[in-house]
Design brief:
Elements: H1 7-20, H2 24-35, H3 40-49, H4 53-92, H5 111-125, E1 129-130, E2 136-138, H6 139-142, E3 162-166, E4 172-175, H7 181-190, E5 194-203, E6 214-224, H8 229-244, E7 251-258, E8 261-274, E9 277-280, E10 289-300, H9 302-307, E11 316-323, H10 324-332, H11 345-351
Parallel strand pairs: 1-5
Antiparallel strand pairs: 2-4, 3-4, 5-6, 6-11, 7-8, 8-9, 8-10, 10-11
Bound molecules: phenylalanine.
Length: about 375
């Protein structure tokens, strides 16, 4: 058997190598060299098996002490190197809290909501406030108070959905067919003067490419002294110019009939045909132009003012009702009304608006998606 080198020398050599290992990879190499399958300490331990009991008794303690010293030095050095590595990582990596947060996927504002906000913004500037009424309405408010008594033929144009429930003021409860009942509710609640718009859902038993059983209207009502048709025309013209962001909006008032206005006027707006598309602007009487029906309006019928608790000899006013969905289609170019209410996410992503993009008069109510 070969004379083994002094264990103490081996040990101090090994401890020096462990202390000199500059990183975890170097330390691992030293560990394999000493304690690996072919390692020098492993080899020493194997020699113990070949010794006589006496010799083993004499040499084993030094060899075991060597193995233990090396193993514990390796563990200490490993912990020190790991701590140092963590220190450098902490020193070099940092979180910048001033960076903008990543964009989370967001829903969009439906064009109907957007257009309602735009209209509220424009009318607020004209001194109108926003009034509301219930969608499940009393027959009296929806029809009777608006000069459509039971069996009035105009009720047939407003075929709606009735509930089995008796209405407090007679007839049955129903889904309102227009926003006009809010006229009556507002006059009854607030008296005169009145200057309101009333946006909301309305219902009719109607369904094709241009009609859905539920759609949206905005009602307008002004009640004061000495109000006349000129005020109505100016108000609508001012609104439409702001809404379509165009100055050459030309209106045509056509005699019409609604039970709750007298006289009643249908309001048309002039458009030009450009590449087969209707573009609002200019008189509809020019060649290549036409008139498009936009909304119903008129001077509030005396009977309605009376039934709303006011004196028609004291005050009078005008009212109008306009389809919000139609205005949205005209302004933002959709061609199928039904898609408005399908809830298709692709449609909403395309035609919807950012929730952060609030319409304001100063920034332009025609905010782009
Ligand atoms: N309520 C009517 C409709 O839905 C519109 C309208 C409102 C007409 C106000 C005149 C005055 O058809």
């Amino acid at each position: 058997m070969q004379e083994a080198p002094e264990i103490e020398t081996l040990k101090s050599d090994a401890l020096a190598r462990i202390a000199a290992a500059a990183d975890l990879a170097a330390l691992e190499a030293v560990r394999v060299d000493l304690l690996g399958k072919q390692g020098t300490i492993t080899a020493l331990l194997k020699t113990l098996g070949q010794m006589s009991p006496e010799e083993r008794l004499e040499k084993a303690p030094a060899i075991q002490a060597y193995r233990e010293a090396a193993a514990s030095a390796l563990a200490d050095r490993k912990a020190a190197l790991e701590a140092a590595a963590l220190e450098t990582r902490l020193a070099s990596e940092h979180v910048d809290l001033t960076l903008p947060a990543p964009q989370a996927p967001r829903g969009t504002v439906h064009p109907v909501s957007q257009v309602m906000d735009e209209m509220a913004e424009i009318f607020a500037d004209l001194g109108f406030s926003v009034a509301t009424g219930p969608e499940i309405e009393d027959d009296w408010f929806n029809f009777t108070a608006l000069n459509m008594p039971e069996s009035h033929p105009a009720r047939a144009m407003h075929d709606t959905f009735y509930f089995p429930d008796q209405a407090p003021k007679g007839g049955r409860m129903l889904l309102r067919t227009h926003t006009s009942p809010v006229q009556v509710r507002t006059m009854l609640a607030d008296g005169a003067p009145v200057r309101i718009i009333a946006p909301g859902r309305v219902y009719r038993s109607d369904s094709d490419a241009t009609h859905t059983p539920m759609f949206h209207q905005i009602e307008g009502l002004v009640i004061d002294r000495d109000i006349h048709l000129g005020h109505l025309k100016w108000t609508l013209e001012t609104f439409l110019k702001a809404f379509f962001e165009k100055d050459d909006i030309v209106l045509r008032l056509r005699p019409s009939y609604f039970p709750f206005t007298e006289p009643s006027v249908e309001v048309d707006v002039g458009f030009a045909l450009v590449n087969g598309k209707r573009v609002l602007g200019g008189s509809g009487d020019e060649s290549g132009h036409g008139w498009m029906e936009l909304l119903g309006s008129g001077m509030v019928n005396r009977k309605v003012i009376e039934m709303s608790g006011l004196d028609p000899d004291e005050c009078q006013g005008f009212a109008f009702g306009v389809g919000v969905d139609r205005l949205a289609m005209l302004k933002y170019g959709m061609d199928d009304l039904r898609a408005f209410f399908d809830g298709d996410v692709r449609w909403l992503q395309h035609y919807g608006f950012s929730g952060l993009d609030q319409p304001t008069l100063s920034a332009g109510v025609g905010a782009k998606a």
